[in-house]
Structure formats: structure tokens, C-alpha cells
Specification:
The protein has helices at about 15-30, 145-159, and strands spanning about 35-40, 45-50, 60-65, 70-75, 95-100, 105-110, 115-120. It is α+β, with helices and mostly antiparallel strands. The strands form two sheets. The chain has a four-stranded antiparallel β-sheet, with no helix packed on it. Strands 3-4-5 form a three-stranded antiparallel β-sheet. β1 (about 35-40) and β2 form a beta hairpin.
Amino acid sequence: MSRLSLFNSPLLLGFDHFERTLDRISKTGSEGYPPYNIEQVGDAALRITLAVAGFGIDDLEIQIEDNQLVVRGRQQDDPDRIYLHRGIAARQFQRSFVLAEGIEVTGASLDNGLLSIDLTRPKVEPQVRSVPIQKAAPRSQAERPNGAAEIAVTAKAKS
């Protein structure tokens, strides 16, 4: 069964990357851990804050993979500890955020169990550009499509 695409129009040229982005967003699903906030902290600045209590700087990794911000956390169990009750699990996580074209990650910090990732969105200025039209070289009779040759002949006959 073929999949119906939102961008399957001859008028939408070069939008295949949007379709891949939508596929990636749908695959990330509704991950619940760790909880996070996304806030606007300026005209062109955003901050993602993840609650990563119990994770140290060495346990966390932030990468950008193909316009996707990926945050991973890995905790190691301490084999020397003996737990009488263990209610806090050493768990791993991976949280992904799809970034729009041009979004830049400017920094990250860890404070009191909150990992903050700062992003900037550069201002996009509209561009207007002219494309020069050049005169095409004349084509020989053999190069013309069938319809073009017939039209040329018909036009001469009516004159």
C-alpha cells in the first residue's frame, strides 16, 4: 500500500525534507521521561529545560543529528552500595527535539538537577532575486519536438 503524502504536489518542489521531519516527529512519540519545558527567553531565543535529577554532567550527552537535538542520559550503578530499599532507579533516557532550519544551540548548563539548553533563532530576512533570461540557441529541425515542427510548417503554409 502506498502512503499518501501531504507534499505530493508538482507545485511543492524541494519539500521532501519536511516530510522526513514529520516522519521523525511522529516516531519520537510521547516519551514521558524526563519532563521538560520549552520557554521563549527573548525575541529570538528559546530555552529547553529538562528535569534530570540524579544525573551529573558526565552522565549527560547532547548532540545535534540531522536537525534533531538529542539529549541522552546514562547512569552507572555503584556496585559497592547496598540498598535496603531502592525507589530511585538508575535509568537511561533519550529525548529528541526536531529543530527548525537555522536554529542554533548556543549552550547548555546543569544546575540543581535542571539541564538548560539555550537556542537562538536567527532572524530571516526575505530575499528577492532576479533571474536573467538568456536567448536560447536556435535548434535544428531534428532537435525540435514533433509538435514544434508541425506548427512551424503550418504557420508558413497559411502565410
